[in-house]
Amino acid sequence: MKDEQLLRYSRQIMLPQMDISGQQKLVDATVLIVGMGGLGCPVAMYLAAAGVGHLVIADDDIVELTNLQRQIAHSDSDLGQAKVDSVRKTLQNLNPDVKITTLNQRLTGVGLDQAVGNVDVVVDACDNFTTRFAINSSCLKSKKPLVSGAAIRMEGQVAVFDSNKLDSPCYQCLYGENSDDDESASCAENGVMAPLVGIIGSVQAMETIKVITGIGNSLVGRLLLLDASSMQWREMKLPRDKNCTACS
């Protein structure tokens, strides 16, 4: 790392668990973030600020006025632009040392497998079950850790799935193959409180950093649930499903 980087990341480097070696792991890492909406924006911003060396951001949508209530990497001047281009500008202003690769497309099939195979960690910040199941499948194929988050109304959840660990469940262990009612689970249909996605996205960013550096205990095998209306967190153990058609 350059002297400027050592200074930029000094508050992280001074943590005993992190040190220079942990920061170097972040600088050397590549992370794929799927979805540049309410969750993907804070995830990308915190990972860029923390010094993840290469961020691959994927989304096929454009910035709309209704996004601005919660998707904090976009602004009025970005309306009508591709979300990945809007976020790239924000991240480059945050930390010009971070390499940003934009994928202005909905990742599916071979393209998704290739994107997942070329990174160290995948962050699922999308908003539909179809894509989540596809991401889970690709992560299992490539044995890449998956940091999953979801938020709707005033409720959110975060989990980490890592097939490199024998006892780790996968996303499909949590939600069966028939969990495909995307319309009823959308923010457009149900609404979402703005700070909620920031909270969940920040936790996803923290878990991503922990997976990359190996510090602390990740959420592998655990599901963290937030009820923002009462600001209560619950944790549930999430065992591997021996009958799961995806990972068993």
From TrEMBL:
InterPro entries reported for this sequence: ThiF/MoeB/HesA (IPR045886), ThiF_NAD_FAD-bd (IPR000594), Ubiquitin-activating_enz (IPR035985)
Gene Ontology molecular function: ATP binding; molybdopterin-synthase adenylyltransferase activity; sulfotransferase activity; thiosulfate-cyanide sulfurtransferase activity; ubiquitin-like modifier activating enzyme activity
Gene3D superfamilies, per database record: NAD(P)-binding Rossmann-like Domain
Catalytic activity as recorded in UniProt: [molybdopterin-synthase sulfur-carrier protein]-C-terminal Gly-Gly + ATP + H(+) = [molybdopterin-synthase sulfur-carrier protein]-C-terminal Gly-Gly-AMP + diphosphate
Pathway: Cofactor biosynthesis; molybdopterin biosynthesis
Cellular component GO terms held in the UniProt record: cytosol
EC number assigned by the record: 2.7.7.80
Alphabetical keyword list: ATP-binding, Nucleotide-binding, Nucleotidyltransferase, Transferase
Highest taxon listed in the record's lineage: Bacteria
Boundaries of every THIF-type NAD/FAD binding fold domain copy: 9-245
Subunit structure: Homodimer. Forms a stable heterotetrameric complex of 2 MoeB and 2 MoaD during adenylation of MoaD.
Recorded family membership: Belongs to the HesA/MoeB/ThiF family.
Function field: Catalyzes the adenylation by ATP of the carboxyl group of the C-terminal glycine of sulfur carrier protein MoaD.
Name listed for the protein in its UniProt record: Molybdopterin-synthase adenylyltransferase
Gene source species: SAR86 cluster bacterium
Taxon lineage: Bacteria, Pseudomonadati, Pseudomonadota, Gammaproteobacteria, SAR86 cluster
